[in-house]
Design goal:
With 516 residues, the chain is mostly helical. It is 73% helix and 1% strand. The protein is built from 20 helices and two strands. It has a two-stranded antiparallel ribbon with strand order 1-2. Strand 1 and strand 2 (86-88) form a beta hairpin. Helix 15 (349-380) runs antiparallel to helix 20. It is globular. Residues 1-15, 279-294 and 512-516 have low confidence and may be disordered.
Length: 516
């Protein structure tokens, strides 16, 4: 009798209630992050700003979730947990672990700067909320869930960039970020609506199946292009990169490093989910397109290859003109998005594993670089490259650590950046996309010139008059500097092999059957 009052899809049993236990297990990291930010909100409403209290609570929450995520890898085979629109597999765990590591390192660098706004609870609420959104994004297999998580990451990012209300540049950077983000979000939502209209479902697998059955269509192509627009904005790929230099230069170094690493990785996480689930059903490229220059498979891979070429060229050439270190690192992050897109466009499991390895090395290089720049602002008085003149005489060890970071960003041995870049180029060369590989190698050579400008200033230029005294850092600062640069050097000297093997194996466990 009750079935007569239920919708037909429910009465027929086609729609079932989700497994609450599996859902709680899949979302436990997000639940803990949300609980942590609620505790901070509650405490601040009674206590007001506190110098280190909220930062410590935020850091403890991130470490707890980090340990929980690491426990998910216990045993020889990590279990895959499916719960409605979320699937927690090796890919989701690896990205979650990366996001949390970025959050922990950001908090450590932020605590060393002791900025007034860092003592406010709202900042840490936004940071934890952003991490929760990234975590959901890496596990989402439903386009609606992915879009909501995508927007959570975006809105918290807008507020983090413009959080310092006492700095006019911070507010200006936040406004620019919002304007570009609104356009990219609208484009992505329209693209998802086209795919939903074609398939009648929000499931990524359902969309893929519908596209395969219906065959290629202009609407499917338009949907793929518009979805790429949203992802390109998040990873700061050309032509949706204009916000990145202004946003990174206007906000604090800790937030800039967090956006350049964790936020960029979140964009690639959702891109990998999309590619692995449904883009194989989009229109193929015409036979006349040369496979030696761009991928010749489904159109989304062609789009990624073209975007990779443009991003590598624009990012590296624009960085050549920068005289301010934060803007140089910002354009550098645009260039590195091009290298990652280059590997992603091959659509292979080896490329996905290489991307995961690269992000860990990239975190040490970029977040460490922004962090060290922030630590030196009180000593040097600014972030212009000219202010680093003679740093090798004022503090030789600090200059050596910065040199390791710059060499690793260039991708030269004996640093971990060299081996990480090799893992990105291997699937490109093995796939015979020689044009992509040549552009990547040439632009990497160009990057040596602007990274070397900092090294030249530190070692070959005399310090300015009155700014030749010693630069001394405290022990906690040296620990952060040593961890970032030391791991890059040790990784390049022989510790990358077993780490890379682990990531590549984990990637092969969840990469679907060949996409090409």
């Amino acid at each position: 009798m009750m079935e007569a009052f239920l919708p037909p899809v429910v009465a027929s049993g086609a729609l079932r209630a989700p497994d609450v236990g599996a859902l709680l297990s899949a979302t436990l990291p997000e639940i803990l992050l949300t609980a942590g930010l609620l505790v901070i909100l509650l405490l601040e409403s009674f206590l007001g700003p506190r110098k280190t209290l909220y930062a410590r609570i935020s850091f403890a929450t991130v470490l707890a979730v980090l340990a929980l995520t690491g426990a998910g890898f216990a045993g020889k085979e990590a279990e895959t947990v499916a719960a409605g629109p979320l699937v927690v597999d090796n890919m989701a765990r690896l990205f979650r672990f990366f996001f949390l590591a970025c959050g922990a390192l950001t908090l450590l660098f932020g605590m060393r700067r002791a900025r007034p706004w860092f003592s406010q609870g709202e900042f840490h609420v936004l940071l934890l909320g952003s991490l929760a959104g990234m975590s959901v994004l890496s596990a989402a297999t439903d386009v609606l869930t992915a879009y909501l998580a995508f927007e959570t990451v975006s809105y918290t990012g807008y507020l983090l960039v413009g959080y310092d209300k006492t700095d006019r540049r911070s507010g200006e950077a936040g406004v620019k970020y919002v304007v570009f983000g609104a356009a990219a979000s609208g484009a992505m939502l329209f693209g998802l609506s086209l795919l939903f209209g074609l398939s009648g479902t929000t499931s990524m697998e359902g969309i893929a199946e519908a596209l395969r059955v219906a065959g290629p269509s202009p609407a499917a192509v338009m949907g793929a292009v518009l979805v790429f627009a949203g992802v390109a904005f998040k990873v700061s790929a050309v032509p949706f990169h204009f916000w990145a230099p202004d946003a990174y230069a206007g906000t604090s170094t800790a937030v800039a490093g967090f956006l350049a690493t964790a936020s960029k990785a979140a964009g690639f996480a959702v891109a990998i989910r999309f590619l692995g689930s449904w883009t194989g059903g989009a229109d193929p490229v015409a036979e006349g397109v040369s496979a030696a220059f761009l991928p010749s498979g489904p159109l989304p891979f062609w789009i990624l290859g073209a975007a990779a070429v443009a991003t590598m060229i624009v990012g590296n050439t624009a960085a050549l003109r920068q005289m301010e270190l934060k803007r140089l690192l910002a354009w550098s992050s645009v260039a590195h998005a091009g290298y990652l897109l280059m590997a992603l466009s091959t659509g292979t499991g080896e490329a996905y594993g290489g991307i995961l390895v690269y992000f860990w090395v990239y975190m040490l290089m970029t977040l460490g670089g922004f962090g060290i720049v922030g630590l030196l602002i009180p000593h040097l008085g600014g972030t212009e490259i000219a202010r680093y003149a003679g740093l090798a005489k004022r503090n030789p060890w600090l200059a050596a650590c910065l040199t390791v970071l710059m060499v690793s960003l260039t991708g030269l041995p004996p640093t971990a950046g060299f081996w990480a870049k090799v893992l990105l180029f291997m699937p490109v060369v093995e796939g015979k996309f020689y044009g992509l590989a040549i552009v990547g190698l040439l632009t990497s050579a160009v990057s040596l010139f602007y990274y070397a400008s900092l090294i030249r200033a530190m070692y070959l230029m005399p310090p300015a008059e009155g700014a030749d005294g010693p630069v001394n850092l405290e022990l906690p600062d040296w620990c952060l500097v040593g961890v970032t640069s030391g791991l890059l050097l040790l990784g390049g000297l022989g510790f990358m092999g077993w780490i890379a093997d682990g990531f590549l194996k984990a990637a092969s466990d969840w990469v679907p059957v060949a996409l090409r």
